[in-house]
Amino acid sequence: MPWLETNPMDQRLQFLEDVRLDRFSFTELCAHRQISRTTGYKWVARAAEEGRRGLADRSRAPHQCPHKISAEMATLLCEFRIKHDDWGARKLLKVLQGKHPRRRDWPAASTVADLFSREGLARRPRRRRPRPDHPGAPAIHTAAPNDLWTADFKGEFRTGDGIYCYPLTIADLHARFLIDCHGRYSTQTVTAWPVFEQAFRAYGLPRAIRTDNGPPFATTSIHGLSKLSVWWMRLGIQHQRITPGMPSENGAHERMHRSLKRRAIRPARATMAAQQRAFNAFRAEYNDERPHESLGMETPASQYTPSPRPYPARLPVPEYPGHFTVKQITTGGTFRFGNRVLYLANALTGELVGLDEVDDGVWWIYFGTTLIATLDERNYIIKE
């Protein structure tokens, strides 16, 4: 008698019949058919839902292939990459998905990165010199917009007509919002002051501003005081200075500067006016179009709100407690103490400072609410 040949469909039907008759336990039936209990339950469920048709073999090919990109999609991605060659695949996809909300055939970010590599559009990673002795700057945490603004000059370069340009940038750290990017003819106080005043009028006052230790933000004077920082302190703004030689403490600002350099400085524009137009275009793109990973791929403009502290019509005058000794700083940054004339800081000329005696002959010197120096009456030495 010849062997009875069976196919997979017959075997599955026989398995289901055995399950229905309850001849053996489910585990024993699965072991007899050399299938797992999971597979056994799968065939029972399919038969219950679809009948005999549910027992047929199904293709294991995926319903969608995330690695396959149509020619039209590849063209769209590559053209956008050429316009934004400093954006990664995730940023490009985020923006394009917003521009084409009805499309559903978007590839994975890794697939887009592979496409850029094949097409020669991948950007070479920067080689960084290892610094094993430096653990990195600590993260700065802010609770809301305007808790901390960062500011800096992005070096210097010449426009096409030979004029030196010094880009001054101001940004909100919490929202990564680029408040201003303005080409200046120098780094002097007289050129930086109007940019900050315009920012204060447009967006209100921040709690603090963080800068490096160079002019016009700071000097080698007591407490690093400069005309700008004294003005900020009178407005109730704390001036934070990074550790000298540690630009990584303003890391987010430095990263923005790298994008600024690629998008708006190289190559330099023909004139200062043309250069400012490039800065304005970069600022609009950076704030309104470019997603930011630290913001969950949202744009800075969607996360920023102006400060509730308006720029005052009149500059507030510092006030001190009644037990303080108040002195006015005269020309040359000096004040009279007893029968001595002591030097404090040129930046404070014309300003009122408060002295609080905290020990016999030891005075703390305040400007507003900020302790800026200590005076030892025994030797008339002023130090931070």
Task: Characterise the protein shown here.
The chain is an alpha+beta fold and 384 residues long. It contains 11 helices and 13 strands. The protein has helices at residues 8-21, 26-33, 37-50, 71-83, 89-99, 109-118, 189-203, 227-234, 251-265, 272-288, 300-303; strands at residues 149-153, 157-158, 164-172, 177-184, 208-211, 238-241, 325-328, 334-337, 340-343, 352-359, 362-367, 370-376, 381-383. The strands form 3 sheets. Strands 1, 2, 3, 4, 5 and 6 form a 6-stranded mixed beta sheet that branches. A 5-stranded antiparallel beta sheet has the order 7-10-11-12-13, with no helix packed on it. Helix 9 (251-265) crosses helix 10.
Beta-strand level of the residues, as a percent range? 15-25%
Q: Any low-confidence stretches, pLDDT <50, length ≥5?
A: 130-139
Whole-number total of structural domains: 4
- The class by helix and strand makeup works out as alpha+beta
Total count of strands: 13
Q: What would the CATH topology of the largest domain be?
A: Nucleotidyltransferase, domain 5
* CATH secondary-structure class of the largest domain: Alpha Beta
Q: What CATH architecture of the largest domain do you see?
A: 2-Layer Sandwich
Helicity level: 25-40%
Number of helices: 11
Distance between the termini: 108 Å
Mean pLDDT: 87
Shape: elongated
Helix and strand run: HHHHHHEEEEHEHEHHHEEEEEEE
Rounded to an integer, what's the Rg over CA atoms?
34 Å
CATH homology-level superfamily of the largest domain: Ribonuclease H-like superfamily/Ribonuclease H
